[in-house]
Amino acid sequence: MESFLIKGGRPLRGEVTISGSKNAALPIMAATLLTEEPCVLRGIPELSDTRFMAQILKSLGADVKFEGGTLAVRAKKIRGYADYDLVRKMRGSICVAGPLLARLHKARISLPGGCVIGARPINLHLKGFESLGAKIEIEGGYVHAQTKRLIGATTFLGGRQGSTVLGTANVMMAAALAEGVTVIESAACEPEVVDLAHFLNSMGARISGAGSPTITVEGVDKLHGAEHVIIPDRIETATFAIAAAATNGEVTIKNCRPDHLRAVLDKLTEAGASLQQRGGTLTVRRGRKLMAADVTTLPYSGYPTDAQAQMMALLTLAPGISIITERIFESRFMHVSELARLGADIEIEGPSAIVKGGRPLSGAPVMASDLRASAALVIAGLAAGGQTQVNRIYHLDRGYEKMDEKLRKLGAKIQRVEEK
Ligand code: EPZ
Question: 268 and 153: one domain?
């Protein structure tokens, strides 16, 4: 397994270009199953998750060519079975369910199972499919969904933690080919849902209201092929912005959408960072000095759960008490014990982590546990004095394209090595 070896204490300086959004790319890749015509997707980040989704499309029968960030897919003839071995390795693959149901009127998808950050149920996805007339059976760890035809309906996708991003994507894709009008109430408002709606509409779908809690889908008989450029990754943008502040550097972030991460930029400003925005370019400096700040993760446009761990790494450096409350997932504090190994003083109290910040961090070997926790450990290692070895960085490679290369270009001393 590979690790990152980081010599910390150096400010990040220079320019970085943001890659396409992983969380926009995955459902949009699944949406190519909705037509038998060719689709071309550009700006697809080269990640283990996107390579995996390409494999899943192939396993369903599609012709797939993925190189240099461009994905050409033609799902002429497909089968409606996504194997456990494939789905369990990447939860995001659940978003092939909607397209398979819409195209084949049947789907046999493995239940994705949980992951380190939570149980990750799909009850709201299935509720949406049932609203459209699908018969759902769970048997042998698989979801068997079947229908004579999908009929438009009104469905409510709000759960205990708010809406569901991939559930909204799944139901929107199924509704695109249903008979009649579907109204998704309490829909997720994330920019990735909006990007999917844009792609579906370019295929001939009739979707309005994406980005708001009420999405209306007028079903059509067929969808045609289309081309699309994936939006920049707002979480990668947040990660580099936070790293700039954490290392007391100055980083200009290009090809980003600051309007997609207003909550993160607002929190960074509160914590003492100074930001300058010019269109799709954002320059981040630490500014005067870091200050403690409280963070609560919420559905969009609230503070994103996917940038919670990274902000915690920064706040360990800010003198004072910062309270970070995780409202979306039940166990998204795996990075806390690893940050403590670098000298951070953090106590978990139920859904909150109480960060007593201000002491400098010092390097140590740490273990990545999930995608965004790994990013937090890299940020902390860059800010810490001495050497930090971040182990199991395969977690990081799932969601960050060439992160070590991008950091080296910003002056970081970071090497990818075989774990000893
Ligand atoms: C998407 O996951 C993202 N993944 C996640 O990013 C992100 O953290 C999450 O949205 C929330 O923003 C992709 O887009 C591939 P949810 P998703 O359904 O759609 C509960 C990353 O780091 N829930 O919005 O699977 C669920 O347990 C990843 O890039 C139900 O109760 O998340 C959670 O508490 C991690 N029933 C909350 O809703 C359901 O049927 C939000 O989950 C579905 C979800």
Answer: no
Question: Are residues 83 and 134 part of one domain?
Answer: yes
**What atom in ligand 1 is closest to the CA of residue 305?**
8
What's the gap in Å between 84 CA and the centre of ligand 1?
19
Question: Can you tell me which residue has the tokens 């092929």?
Answer: 225
Does position 191 have pLDDT exceeding 80, yes or no? yes
Q: Which residues are marked as active site?
A: 115
For ligand 1, whether the C-beta of 51 sits within 6 Å is no
List the residue whose alpha carbon is closest to atom 1 of ligand 1.
Answer: 165
Cα of 83 to ligand 1 centre, how many Å? Answer: 21
Spatial contact of 320 and 355, defined as CB atoms under 8 Å apart: no
Domain that holds residue 284: 2-19+232-418
Q: Let me know whether 236 and 316 are in one domain.
A: yes
Helix (H), strand (E) counts: the chain = 14, 24
What's the pLDDT tens digit per position in 11-48?
A: 999 999 999 999 999 999 999 999 999 999 999 999 99
User: Ligand 1 atom 21: the closest Cα is on which residue?
Assistant: 306
State whether 202 and 265 are in the same domain. Answer: no
Q: Whose CA is nearest to atom 4 of ligand 1?
A: 23
Predicted structure pTM score:
0.98
Is the same domain home to 268 and 343?
yes
CATH number for the domain spanning 265: value is 3.65.10.10
Identity of residue 330? E
Q: Which atom of ligand 1 is nearest to the CA of 399?
A: 29
* Section 192-197 average pLDDT: 99
Q: What is the DSSP code string of 118-131?
A: B----HHHHHHHHH
Residue of 249 and 420 predicted with greater confidence: 249
The domain boundary, picked from 229, 259, 283, lies at 229
The residue that leads in pLDDT, 87 or 267, is 267
Tell how far the Cα of 310 is from the centroid of ligand 1, in angstroms: 18
Q: Which residues touch 102 (CB under 8 Å, ≥6 apart)? A: 34, 150, 173, 174, 175, 176, 177, 178
* Separation of CA 228 and ligand 1 centre (Å): 24
Quick one: tokens of 51?
């390579």
Instruction: Quote the pLDDT of residue 113.
Output: 72
Q: Is 159 in the pocket of ligand 1 (CB under 6 A)?
A: yes
Residues 195 and 99 in one domain: yes
The closest of 260, 324, 327 to 292, measured between CA atoms, is 324
**For the segment 83-124, what is each residue's pLDDT rounded down to a tens digit?**
777 777 788 889 999 999 999 999 988 887 777 888 889 999
For the Cβ of 302 lying below 6 angstroms from any atom of ligand 1, the answer is no
* Domain stops at, among 212, 229, 246: 229
